[in-house]
Design a protein that fits this description.
Blueprint lengths: L3 H19 L3 H35 L2 H49 L3 H6 L2 H16 L4 H23 L1 H8 L2 H38 L1 H6 L3 H53 L5 H42 L21 E9 L5 E10 L4 E5 L6 H8 L7 E6 L2 E2 L5 H5 L2 E5 L7 E2 H5 L8 H10 L3 H6 L7 E2 L8 H14 L4 E5 L7 H14 L4 E5 L11 E6 L2 E6 L1 H7 L2 H21 L1
Parallel strand pairs: 3-10, 3-11, 6-9, 9-10
Antiparallel strand pairs: 1-2, 1-4, 4-5, 7-8, 11-12
The structure holds adenosine-5'-diphosphate and magnesium ion.
Length: 594
């Protein structure tokens, strides 16, 4: 349970945040505010003219004044429309400006957060913070909000006037307001919450559709169509029921409000008539009263709507705020230096690291990687190989000890100067929506055509790229062609090559490939490696036999290290791994030759 003061602080911070973003547009806000002021004045005046017609023009038969007043009312109503349009349109400009700035700010902040944050938060949840939660806040910077301020003054002015004319009638009329206020608050709260369930159930429906339609092969191969049909029917039913419930509420709301309005009207009419019979007020007063009653009912309802709007916005802002106050643990420290071009000597000096507290992955870890050599890391899965790659790129910070690159502590250099010198090719290649060219040039958008082609050639990707009718302009990713694992892998090697990194990390880059693609990639890599420092992480030992130095890792500890031959003669862990894989390697070679 959040304390009251915490909620209040959050609320004032939200107003500051939203209106700070809107601040640059004060001219628009001024225009909208003036229009709203004009609206209040016009709304107050029109019933006065009605009263004049009834109490003065009719008894005294002033035909000319009749036309004048008629024209005035028509003209005023027209102006009323113009001001309403101006205020709501101008405020949309302001709110959209403020909201898109806030959204950009949130996105900038989110993208700059470290991987640890993304490990802890689900993508879907972050997406909804950036979209629907930000949209919620938009409602705060709207013409409704401005007009509520104006409404408040109109409300006070009209109430004062009514009390002045006939305080008994005025009190009677006002006695209906609390009912109106609480009824609409009750309904708008309930309606919002049932619509939230409607939104949730619709989202679940579309999640289910997305999962099952994109995974249709699995469903068919397990013959589980009927299970999915039943599950879908269940979700459809939840969705249907929630929509019916929502519309029952939202359909009963206007009639109830209408009825309350009529009760107010009837009270004014009956008591007003009685007062008029005793000559306390005029007939014109009654008509004006009825008009003001309608005018006052609007603000009462919008006050109550505003209360729930603010509650909604606060809840949304709380979720936005959580992201905004998260400071990435991995960030440039003050006065971080720019890492000069590296040789690639890496030292893990007594490092402790855990992704989650209490689950250490590396402890007292020591590892030295020589510059301009190929170092291989082997070990069973889960032994911490990828973790070492992540730590070198400083995707996470270590808890104890330090990592040095060419003698510089990683934490002393800027993230950008470090990461631009490292090329990582990993097992699961992520291609972005776009062309083959975009994907190769991702780390270096200004690359020339020649550079891109040279990278593709070196990565052994030239042949298959040129076989596409559109060559480098072929679209890949969700909406483009389907590439095989080996083709994607070669694109990612070309991408790493183009960056011309001094340090290359291949994290099981060939593990998922068949032998033929693996050999293509091996030969691509042999052009990539000379003159650079390379860390090869491999599950398959065939890929690393020629490495200068092989490190065998188990459960976050180095159990053996040496060259291929040296390790074989040790008859230790490496030999066991090798013996397990060797027969299989011979078989693979045979099928390749056949
Ligand atoms: P390898 O690459 O050798 O298969 P990893 O370095 O990926 O092993 O993983 C080492 C250990 O760290 C494993 O126990 C794994 O479950 C854990 N781990 C890896 N990534 C994360 C993460 N993002 N969050 C929490 N634990 C992780
Ligand atoms: Mg791994």
């Amino acid at each position: 349970m959040k304390s009251r003061s915490h909620r209040y602080r959050l609320f004032s911070e939200m107003l500051r945040e939203v209106f700070f973003q809107a601040k640059g547009q004060w001219k628009y806000i001024l225009v909208a505010a003036l229009s709203i002021l004009a609206i209040s004045v016009l709304e107050f005046i029109i019933p006065q003219w009605t009263k004049v017609v009834i109490d003065q023009v009719i008894p005294e038969q002033q035909i000319a004044a009749l036309f004048e007043l008629g024209a005035a009312i028509v003209g005023a109503a027209l102006l009323l429309g113009v001001f309403r349009f101006v205020s709501s349109f101008v405020m949309t400009i302001v709110s959209q400006g403020a909201i898109s700035q806030l959204r950009n700010k949130l996105y900038r902040h989110t993208v700059n957060l470290d991987l640890n944050f993304f490990d802890r938060n689900r993508t879907g949840d972050l997406m909804s913070r950036l979209t629907s939660d930000v949209n919620q806040l938009q409602e705060l910077v709207s013409a409704d909000t401005l007009s509520i301020v104006a409404d408040f003054f109109t409300f006070i002015a009209i109430c004062g006037y009514l009390l002045y004319v006939d305080w008994q009638l005025a009190l009677l009329l006002m006695s209906t307001f609390p009912f109106l206020f609480y009824t609409s608050r009750f309904f708008s709260g309930r309606i919002k919450s049932v619509y939230r369930t409607v939104r949730q159930s619709s989202a679940e429906l579309s999640n289910h559709l997305q999962d099952t339609l994109s995974g249709i092969r699995v469903i068919k191969s397990f013959a589980s169509e009927n299970d999915e049909i039943d599950r879908f029917a269940g979700l459809t039913e939840i969705n249907r029921a929630s929509i019916v419930k929502a519309s029952r509420l939202s359909a009963s709301f206007p009639p109830i409000i209408e009825w309350l309005n009529y009760i107010g009207m009837t009270l004014v009419l009956l008591f007003g008539a009685w007062q008029a019979m005793h000559n306390h007020i005029t007939v014109g007063d009654i008509v004006a009263y009825l008009a003001y009653l309608r005018l006052l009912q609007g603000p009462v309802r919008s006050f109550s709507r505003m209360v729930s709007k603010i509650q909604q916005a606060s809840a949304a802002y709380e979720r936005i705020h959580e992201v905004l106050v998260t400071v990435p643990a991995v960030r440039n420290k003050e006065r971080a230096i720019i890492l000069p071009p590296i040789q690639g000597e890496i030292l893990f000096d007594n490092v402790d690291f855990a992704y989650e507290k209490g689950v250490p992955v590396l402890e007292n870890f020591y590892l030295q990687i020589e510059p301009q050599q190929v170092t291989a890391l082997v070990g069973s899965s889960g032994s911490g190989k990828s973790t070492i790659a992540h730590l070198i790129a400083r995707l996470y910070d270590v808890q104890k000890g330090a990592i040095f690159i060419d003698g510089y502590p990683l934490t002393d250099v800027t993230l950008e100067s470090l990461r631009t010198q490292i090329g990582i090719v990993s097992q699961d290649v992520i291609l972005l929506n776009g062309t083959i060219r975009d994907n190769i040039a991702y780390g270096k958008p200004q690359a020339t055509r020649e550079e891109i082609e040279a990278a593709a050639r070196a990565a052994n990707a030239l042949a298959f790229i040129e076989a596409f009718p559109q060559g480098y302009d072929t679209l890949v990713g969700e909406r483009g062609v389907k590439l095989s694992g080996g083709q994607k892998q070669r694109l990612s090697i070309a991408r790493a090559l183009l960056k011309n990194p001094r340090l290359i990390i291949l994290d099981e880059a060939t593990a998922a490939l068949d032998t033929e693609s693996e050999q293509l990639i091996q030969s691509a890599l042999s052009t990539l490696l000379p003159g650079r420092t390379c860390l090869v992480i491999a599950h398959r030992l065939s890929t690393i036999q020629s490495a200068d130095h092989i490190v065998v890792l188990e459960k976050g500890r180095i159990v053996e290290a040496g060259t291929h031959e040296g390790l074989l003669t040790l008859s230790g862990r490496y030999k066991t791994l090798y013996d397990k894989q060797f027969p299989q390697m011979i078989k693979e070679k045979e099928t390749l030759l056949a």
